[in-house]
Amino acid sequence: MLEFTLILLAGTFSFYFKKYVEEDIRLFEVYLKFVILVLSALLLIFTKILGVLLLPLILFYLYNRKSNFLLAILLLYLAALSTLCVHCYLLALAITILLVWLY
Question: What's the gap between Cα 88 and its chain centre?
């Protein structure tokens, strides 16, 4: 939710400052900061989606190969905690459990 708010805010301010960019270099710096803010928010969203979709598939593949599955779960989810929010982490874990249970 925070990322979408940042994108909307940055889009609004970038539209407002776009016509004044040629007049003042400070406004250009503000415009550039908002563009960077939008890009970082999009990167956060992409990371969350990628983590929720890819982690269960990787873990399901490792489960099928029967190669240190519990260690792989621990390492992958600990690595994911640095980039994912808690509800994304729990969703990825639930998808993994569902895949293993259905298989």
Answer: 9
